[in-house]
Specification:
With 411 residues, this protein is α/β, with parallel strands linked by helices. It has 9 helices and 18 strands. The structure holds fe (ii) ion (FE2).
Length: 411
């Protein structure tokens, strides 16, 4: 069957709903604006490379007890988990091992992608619908650009936008994608990082096979497998893979924060810091009282700061003038500090015992009137619709988007 996307479809995130009898399947697709002609002032970056990395993963079954130790709750299996376990044609994900124990370092979009429908877990494609839903609800027009587009065409694709916004988990990034975002920021673009554990692994796109990416879990990091010695470089490009923080562009340089902890049980609210009253950023909290918890609610683990969370660190690249405007730091034992930040095994590595298990909301000005705002939390978007979109998480984001779309230079 073939269906041609009508030429007048507005740019956006879509899914084709296929039905046969009682069975159904969703095929996600994205419509770009006409090349070189933005149709909105806001651009939403859809992290397709990160979608490909997770596609058809077997984690909930094959990780065994690790999935329960990591989440501190019983594993629950979806229909997709069981189906994938009994079928082989859909392949493995970058979170899985081959039968010989070696990790899977390639992924492709050219196969059916299970887990990307409205009845699946709130992760990646589905969790990102909280952002598109909020933008629609608030009446913000936006264009959609995917990782694949950004990799292929670079900063020219986004430089026409006043503001570029990420989705909840842009974890896998190529060098051309990284350079495009840095270039956009240097030109005065406004950048909103709506996620956690972003810009973490270095990937390559295949120059020969459209839609195929590669990544090696080299050296360190929170990783599902460990690359063997001599297998740290990518066959597609020859580049060293692994963490971006080991490749000279730590995420803190791009968005002020980087991966600090994860926990998949209970999210927490942010609390404003003393810095939040600085006139440089106080407008972010217009309509929000000084001491009210921000986001003690939400569809993703019940709090706006949760799932995978990031924090600021000047030593890693957070600009020295960046303001940590709100922080969530009262996490429980279900949250675990990232392994790349400690050198010896010890007991003070969870939310109750480790001061680095923290989620920082950050703002800073950039060159040429630009600025960066980062939530540092995958769960943040899950709180936007609470109380019919009338809540302080939604208010913070609305204040930021409105200011970032205002052409008056920031700073
Ligand atoms: Fe991830």
């Amino acid at each position: 069957m073939c269906w041609q996307v009508p030429g007048d479809f507005p740019s956006g995130v879509y899914a084709a709903h296929l039905q046969q009898g009682s069975e159904e399947f969703y095929v996600p697709f994205y419509v770009r604006p006409p090349r070189g002609k933005p149709t909105a002032r806001l651009c939403l970056l859809v992290p397709t490379a990160s979608y490909y990395a997770y596609v058809n993963h077997h984690m909930n079954v094959d990780w065994g007890s690790l999935i329960e130790h990591s989440s501190t709750c019983f594993a629950t299996l979806t229909t997709a988990d069981l189906y994938l376990q009994n079928q082989t044609p859909f392949g493995l994900s970058m979170y899985d091992d081959h039968n010989d124990g070696s990790g899977v370092c390639y992924a492709s979009r050219l196969r059916p992608m299970l887990r990307m429908g409205p009845h699946e877990e709130l992760w990646q494609y589905n969790a990102d619908s909280h952002i598109t839903d909020w933008l629609d609800e608030k009446g913000y027009a936006f264009d959609v650009v995917t990782d694949d587009d950004l990799h292929a065409e670079g900063s020219s694709l986004i430089e026409g936008y006043d503001c570029v916004m990420t989705c909840t988990h842009p974890e896998y990034y190529s060098l051309p994608m990284m350079n495009a975002l840095l270039s956009y920021q240097h030109q005065g673009g406004r950048f909103i990082y709506m996620g956690g554990n972003g810009f973490y692994w270095r990937v390559a796109y295949s120059p020969e096979f459209p839609g195929a990416i590669e990544m090696r879990r080299a050296e360190d990091g929170m990783r599902s497998w460990i690359a063997e010695p001599g297998e740290y470089h990518m066959s597609f490009s020859g580049e060293l893979s692994g963490l971006w923080s080991r490749s000279g562009i730590a995420p803190q340089r791009l968005c002020g924060v980087g991966f600090s902890a994860q926990g998949f049980n209970f999210g927490r609210p942010y609390h404003r810091t003393a810095s939040s009253h600085d006139p440089r950023c106080a407008w972010i909290f217009d309509g929000i009282a000084e001491d009210e918890p921000i986001g003690d609610f939400g569809l993703v683990f019940g709090g706006a700061a949760g799932s995978e969370i990031d924090s600021a660190d000047v030593r890693k690249g957070t600009p020295s003038h960046a303001l940590v405007v709100a922080t969530a730091d009262d996490f429980g034992a279900d949250f675990h500090w990232v392994v790349e930040d400690y050198h010896h095994a010890h007991s003070a590595v969870n939310g109750e015992t480790c001061p680095y298990v923290r989620c920082d909301m950050v703002f800073y000005e950039t060159e040429n009137g630009g600025a960066v705002f980062s939530t540092g939390s995958i769960a943040f978007a899950g709180s936007l619709s609470h109380n019919d979109y009338n809540n302080n998480v939604s208010q913070v984001l609305e204040n930021v988007v409105n200011r970032f779309l205002d052409p008056d230079p920031i700073g």
